[in-house]
Amino acid sequence: MQFGVFTVSDITPDPHTGRAPDDTERVRSILAIAEHAEEVGLDVFATGEHHNPPFVASSPTTMLGYLAGRTKNIVLSTATTLITTNDPVRLAEEYAMLQVISDGRMDLMMGRGNTGPVYPWFGQDIRQGIPLAIENYALLRRLWEEEVVDWEGKFRTPLQGFTSTPRPLDGVPPFVWHGSIRSPEIAEQASYYGDGFFHNNIFWPMSHTKQMVQFYRQRFEHYGHGRADQAIVGLGGQVFMRKNSQDAVDEFRPYFDNAPVYGHGPSLEDFSAQTPLTVGSPQQVIDRYAAMRHEVGHYQRQLFLIDHAGLPLKTVFEQLDILGGEVVPVLRKEMESDRPADVPSGPPTHAERVAKARAAGQVHEQTVAAADHWTGRTAEDDAAAADAVTARQGAAFGL
Amino acid sequence: MTERRIVALSAGLGQPSSTRLLADRLAEATATELADRGQRPEVRVVELRDYAHDIVNAMLTGVPSPALAEVIEAVTGADALIAVTPLFTTTYSGLFKSFVDILDKDSLIGLPVLLGATGGTARHSLAIEYSMRPLFTYLRADVATTSVFAATDDWATGATADEPSPLPARIRRAGAELAATVAARGSRGPQDPFAGAPSFADLLGG
Predict the structure, then answer these.
(1) What is the count of structural domains for chain B?
(2) Tell me, what CATH number does B123's domain have?
(3) B62 contacts A203? CB cut-off 8 A
(4) pLDDT in the model for residue A90
């Protein structure tokens, strides 16, 4: 099973000092956290994508591309990539580039974002959220799977004879997750394609998470990708740990009480009871999270939120040390102890996906880029040629 | 006999509360009328006061506590809703509106609703019509024509020349109206949260 961390990249003042890092410091902290996550033996680092303060992670592939060069083993991912407002052509290009650069050590998670204005900022209509997610993702897949794409849809300029480059590594696209908290349409989308489903349950009671995951599992089986218990499921989580649980509670409470999202709302105790937030000893975290599989079935990826609410970088590093040193090794063992042999212990790796695609005869050994009619020329040359045509037509009309 | 689940919502803050009293009376009138029509009414009265903190927390986090989620489910899954609020500063109370605000905007579509309000004097009686009714019309609920406003004096006034229609008569009339609407319907039954999920073929084709 994979264990990792995901960041929302918030800039929040530390309630003890009132000091907040600036954007540069926060971006560098996130990169340091990702590198340390690998050092302590975690399997995944994922970044959110936001386009408004107080969040800094606007350009995930730039961050992940850097990290691909700085790390060796950790899987680089997103939580989430905005499938609604990003141009699917740019997503196809950027994430294929990341896939090539990281040698397949990446995947990505589609989502719809958490702020309304992001739609108009990128020229889209929030009321079309679900249709955008459906159409854009269908195009993204075609751009990865088909060398030359003719396409026409509702939300973007049509494409004629378009080839997205670089072509996916070994001709096999990255593995994709779909993150959704409430929308059955997205669970349906994940199951239709046989993709992974991630329920970011950090604000939700297990009863709701269980219901969404069960729906995805049933539909996964319905679409013929395997048995329901073999579907690829990921969950969010949130922890703060110290050797003595009361120390953890005392230290984390001011951060909780002032956090931008749930601060000044429910008490730490109520929130801990109602959501997966676990503040206490490493053993408490192990017990709580080991039990998750009894609710949602054997799952493949567990991501923890540990760097938000203004927690100092030093504290976040300590949390990573505890997570990697004491919690994950035990949790991993427990999670695998009763997993049936034919239920995957992680999402498919790039190598597994390549082997599967080759066995199915879906990839050539070497993909060949489409003939490039731009070779040796620039786009402006063509524009000039077009102008020349226009000028000739103009002349014909006596203009 | 068909079982009919009626939820009476009271946003009264006092204990005892005249808003709760009006909710109880409206529920009783509706239940009596349903029973006369051969139905089996089951009334549940919810005091929003008991969930006030949970309602604010749900507004802050976007997620209801389990106790509040259970109330929301009861309201949206009911066969009829009786909604009663005190009038504060010309309109429904903030607590009442906050509860309505955390409901899914589509969750009350077609739900038979009876409106009630309490206030100091009869001069505020039209607040139901200019604030409560538009709210439930926006939510596309099926709002009963008769609504019931109870001023403080109404609790001690019989029929007079000034008040030809005393409170008990209005309560009976409103209850009968709501009961008639409910009785004419099939039972709504428990809601399946995934019943409305379209198939992916429909989504792609849409």
Answers:
(1) 1
(2) 3.40.50.360
(3) yes
(4) 98
Which of A196, A151, A157 lies closest to A174 in space, CA to CA?
A196
Nearest to A57 by CA among A29, A98, A84, A16: A29
Angle between the A313-322 and A23-39 helix axes, to the nearest 10 degrees? 20
CB contacts under 8 A, B 39-58 vs A, are: 56-57
Exposure string for A190-206, b = 16+ CB within 10 A, e = fewer: bbbbebbbbbbbbbbbb
Q: What is the mean pLDDT of residues A125-140?
A: 95
Q: How many CB atoms lie within 10 A of CB A258?
A: 17
List of residues 6+ apart from B115 with CB closer than 8 A = B83, B84, B128, B132, B133, B136, B143, B144, B147, B148
Does residue B80 contact residue B174 with C-beta atoms inside 8 Å? no
- Find the mean pLDDT for residues A202-222: 94
pLDDT, position A383: 61
Residues of B in contact with A187 (CB under 8 A): 197
CA distance A217 to A129: 23
Report CB contact under 8 Å: A265, B56.
Answer: yes
Average pLDDT on A177-194 reads 94
CA distance A39 to A36: 5
A2-396 fold: TIM Barrel (3.20.20)
Give residue limits of the domains in chain A. Answer: 2-396
Side chain identity, residue A291: A
Of the pLDDT bands very low, low, confident and very high (cuts 50, 70, 90), residue B204 is confident
Contacts of A215 in chain B (CB under 8 A): 194, 197
Of B60, B200, B206, the CB nearest to A264: B60
For residues A337 and A339, what is the distance between their CA atoms, to the nearest angstrom? 6
How do residues A234-254 score in pLDDT, each as one tens digit? 999 999 999 999 999 999 999
Q: In this complex, which of A138, A204, A264 lies closest to B63 when CB atoms are compared?
A: A204
Region of poorest pLDDT, from A134-143, A329-338, B126-135, B181-190: B181-190
User: What DSSP string describes B173-188?
Assistant: HHHHHHHHHHHTS---
| Record: contact B56-A184, CB cut-off 8 A | no
A181 CA: distance to closest CA in chain B (Å): 11
ipTM of the complex: 0.78
What are the pLDDT digits (tens) for B160-200?
Answer: 777 677 999 999 999 999 999 999 987 766 567 677 777 88
| Residues in A touching B193 (Cβ below 8 Å) | 184, 211
State which residues form the domain around B12: 3-205
